[in-house]
Specification:
Layout (H helix, E strand, L loop, with lengths): L1 H22 L10 H37 L7 H25 L11 H4 L4 H28 L9
Length: 158
Amino acid sequence: MYLVSILASFLLGGIFALLMRTSLLSPTKHIVSADTYNQMFTLHGAIMIFLFIIPGIPAALGNIVLPLMLGAKDVAFPRLNLASYYFWVVGAVFSLLSIVLGAVDTGWTFYTPYSTTTNTSVVAMTFGAFILGFSSIFTGLNFIVTIHKLRPKGMGWF
């Protein structure tokens, strides 16, 4: 589930990247306005960082590879793993909701003072990033417990 969802996020972030690159084809013609370009730049960065890169390796690949490396059937807490995925989906919905409410144009880092003075939906995007952080924390805790409790007898930490 993680892999399919993360690849869908990668596709959406890639579409924003293509739209940005096409607007830079010519220095004289402007396909989109400067504000729309800033919004596409921010949404591309936020989607690629928070919805693809951060959960990509631990969640998508870790859920497949870690139990195989340990010889375990599954991770230690499969329900926590599912809860982590649901948190990811809710965080993704809040992040993508910011597109509908008025796309954020502050850059993917949401630095102040601009993020506090803009009229875009910075609150929805940062709340989505906050929820996505909990998803990553749950995944990390699950992996730590899985490594600690489900490793084969005789396998040390090193």
